[in-house]
Write a structure and sequence with these properties.
The complex is a heterodimer of chains A (about 350) and B (about 280). In chain A, about 25% of the residues lie in helices and about 35% in strands. Chain A has nine helices and 20 strands. Chain A has a six-stranded mixed β-sheet with strand order 6-7-8-3-9-10, with helices on both faces. In chain A, strands 13-12-11-14-20 form a five-stranded antiparallel β-sheet. Chain A has a five-stranded antiparallel β-sheet with strand order 15-19-16-17-18, with no helix packed on it. Chain B has about 280 residues and is mostly helical. Classes of the chains: A alpha+beta (about 350), B mainly alpha (about 280).
Chain lengths: ~350, ~280
């Protein structure tokens, strides 16, 4: 077990000007499950590969425990990695795949077989040990890839979108299995995904990246309730948070026909005459006509317990898309107009120019 | 009905072509069992008895046995050396991007277009100076090197199809670069290795001119040269039966090997084409 530290770690790919990962500072605690999440090209996989030693670190350092591993080859870092496409050796049986690293490390045949058997038992793979990877289903292959990592008993697990090749149902199942397994083993885990649901459900903490820059590292709950900037606010949560640019008025922001009190300090900290206000779809409540914002319901998506209104609203003569969650049993008609306002205390205010959170 | 008819008609030229190609081989094969008189008496008939006198004569008296072993040696050694040189080269060109790797690949490609004839005389003097003339090992080495560009070309297209993740997984598992190449990558490009090796083997087995120039004593002759000598001899000694037997010995192994691996070769050729 060990901590992992990225200390100003930067990666610039040859032939490009912009760093793929820019001065990343990140501490992963001993035994912690940290998820790196972000859209395509945000540098999350590159960060993981830098930690694995598969990618050079141009400036900065990476530490595993107290040891600086920046220039240590992958094999000497005491890590195990699960790849997106599993990277199982196709010409070897499941047990050979799982025991391969031990074999190279010179572990005796019997001890190797014992450790492979233990891992196989843990992952319910005992019946498949003699099969080749091509004779396994996607889920089984995924488990073999996990097994290969577990067998090594590494200090850190690295996982690069290990669930993205599974179908939706299996993904949900495996998600919980992986999370509980790594917790039980108590191994520090760095997990990369582009799926924010995976990030929120699996991670002890989640690091959100964009364009190679770390946006926020926090617990899933805090990320959801207290996003540090507009990007995190819009990225975390499904459906996404509504972000509206609203005029600042005395005592708060102008929310359609009413003034919403955001608190004095938020307004004082904002730099312009408008602020970006974020409200999650579930934090908007239907009100009487003329109270709050008028929303034209373009589409009403009924999901059973909930219904979502996908509509448009006019703010400052500009049309904005807006999503509102309503009771699934009494959804409004399509093409009707509803009036909404945010629940008190559930509004996020961001500076309109910098996108940073203002106020608490 | 019409379609079936069209199909039959379109196959007629192919059948004719197959007969034209196969008939001389069958004729030679049958001739190898006939004695001198029978060859002239009934050249188109089946042999009266399947006797192996001609084979024994060719193998023992005309040096075909010795040449067969020599050919086998240069072919196996040539193929092995060629693969040992080409696989790491192709891997380096394909996977380790270094300054000039693209240029190097193009140099290999371009060298395939240089006629071999141009190398014979310089090679002769080189071998003479190194005291390596009339040496089967030296000939194997030359054979190996002549086919390196072709083999690199074939292997590169196969190697490009091996997922990089596998190599990275092996690197994390603790393999060295050569370990990754020989234990992980090589088994995955077996089709390419077989394809290139068979094509090289056919070339080495049938090669004539370099063997003629670089080998200078009868006991070192490979099959190509030995068959030529036997053919010249047959003109004066009428050892036609022995000649046919010798030819049969010379061509049967390569046909058998080709037939066994034919599926691999055709698969290999198309795979290479698509992934390249």
């Amino acid at each position: 077990m060990a901590t992992v530290t990225f200390d100003q770690a930067t990666r610039v790919y040859p032939g490009t000007d912009r760093p793929a990962v820019d001065k990343l500072d990140l501490d992963v605690g001993d035994g912690e499950f940290l998820v790196l999440v972000g859209p395509s090209g945000c540098g999350k996989s590159t960060s993981l590969r830098m930690l694995a030693g598969l990618e050079d670190v141009n400036t900065g350092r990476i530490l595993i425990g107290d040891r600086d591993v920046t220039d240590v080859p992958p094999k000497d870092r005491d890590i195990a990695m699960v790849f997106q496409n599993y990277a199982l050796y196709p010409h070897m049986s499941v047990s050979d795949n799982m025991g391969f690293a031990l074999k190279i490390a010179g572990v005796g045949k019997e001890q190797r077989a014992e450790r492979v058997r233990e891992a196989a038992k843990l992952l319910d793979l005992e019946d498949y040990l003699d099969r080749k990877p091509k004779a396994l289903s996607g889920g089984q292959r995924q488990r073999v890839a996990m097994g290969r990592a577990i067998v090594r008993n590494p200090r850190v697990f690295l996982m690069d979108e290990p669930l993205s090749n599974l179908d939706a149902k299996l993904r949900v199942q495996t998600r919980t299995q992986i999370a509980s397994l790594t917790r039980r083993l108590g191994v520090t885990t760095v997990y990369v995904t582009h799926d924010q649901v995976e990030a929120m459900t699996m991670g002890d903490r989640v690091a959100v990246l964009k364009d190679g820059l770390l946006q926020q590292v926090d617990t899933p709950r805090r990320l959801y309730d207290h996003p540090d900037n507009v990007f995190v606010a819009g990225f975390i949560g499904s459906p996404a948070m509504n972000l509206l640019e609203l005029p600042v008025v005395d005592g708060g922001v102008q929310f359609g026909g009413t003034t919403y009190d955001t608190g004095r300090e938020a307004i004082d900290a904002a730099s312009g005459s408008t602020v970006t206000v974020g409200v999650r779809p579930e934090d908007l409540v239907l009100t009487a006509e003329g109270d709050g914002l008028a929303v034209e319901a373009d589409l009403v998506e009924e999901q059973g317990a909930d219904a979502f209104i996908f509509g448009r609203t006019i703010v400052n003569d500009k049309s904005h898309d807006i999503i509102v969650r309503v009771d699934g049993r009494r959804p409004p008609e399509k093409n009707s107009t509803v009036w909404v306002r945010p629940q008190p205390g559930h509004v996020h205010v961001f500076d309109a120019t910098t996108g940073e959170r203002v106020g608490d | 009905m019409r379609k079936a008819l069209m199909q039959t008609v379109s196959r007629i030229p192919l059948v004719v072509w197959a007969v034209i190609v196969i008939y001389p081989i069958i004729w030679m094969f049958l001739g190898s069992f006939k004695d001198y008189g029978e060859i002239f008496r009934s050249p188109w008939a089946l042999p009266e008895a399947f006797e192996f006198d001609n084979f024994v004569q060719a193998w023992n008296d005309h040096g075909i046995g010795r040449s067969f072993v020599n050919s086998l040696l240069v072919t196996v050694l040539g193929c092995t050396l060629c693969m040992l040189f080409s696989l790491p080269t192709a891997y380096a060109i394909e996977r380790i991007r270094f300054r000039g790797s693209k240029v190097l690949f193009n140099v290999y490609l371009a060298s395939m277009m240089i006629p071999m004839v141009l190398g014979w005389i310089p090679l002769f003097f080189l071998l003479l100076q190194l005291n390596l003339l009339n040496n089967l090992l030296a000939l194997s080495l030359i054979y190996a090197v002549t086919q390196v560009p072709f083999t690199v070309f074939i292997l590169c297209s196969f190697l490009s199809g091996v997922p990089r993740d596998l190599e990275e997984a092996a690197a994390i598992d603790g393999m060295s670069q050569y370990g990754i190449l020989f234990k992980i990558v090589a088994p995955l490009v077996t089709t390419g290795i077989i394809t290139a090796s068979i094509m090289n083997a056919v070339m080495y087995w049938n090669e004539y001119f370099m063997a003629l120039i670089f080998l200078q004593s009868d006991e070192k002759n490979t099959l190509g040269v030995a068959m030529d000598l036997l053919a010249n001899e047959a003109e004066y000694t009428n050892a036609w039966g022995a000649l046919f037997a010798g030819l049969t010995i010379a061509i049967i192994p390569i046909m058998v090997i080709y037939a066994i691996f034919q599926r691999n070769i055709t698969k290999g050729m198309t795979e290479g084409a698509l992934k390249g």
